[in-house]
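Before any further analysis, we paired sequence with structure tokens, yielding the entry below:
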Amino acid sequence: MFLGRYHHTLDKKGRLTVPVRFREALQGGAYLVQGFDRNLMVLTPPVFERIYRRVNALSMTDPVARQLKRLIFSAASPVELDGAGRILIPPYLREAVALDGEAVVVGVGDYFEIWPPEDWQQQMMLLQDAEANARRFAALDLSPGDEAFSPT
């Protein structure tokens, strides 16, 4: 599970040091894809394969499905950790999200995201609005799902 937030730098070649806590999960490689919020997502092979199967099953006659396929697959890049625990972010993905020099690595459960610091700061401002969060997340069932759970 990918949790937490880390600030890292990219070197001149576009290599990003992966947080130590995330490295074990990436020993079998990973997939780097363009995210939905002007960010990048790093997916383990099992997660990428689940998404691939679901997206690939969508009808190619549906224009929205075709756009989703293009967004995810045209920018997907397999990555491997090097000996120093870094991944190489291809230039086209760095350009797509304006990633240069600094990055914020954010764990989001099954995968992690890579953000330009300015864009992550904007995201954090949105997430800190308690009233908006109450409205935004009200329809989601965030109960633990365990009947034995009791908040008291």
Observations:
- The longest strand covers residues 102-107.
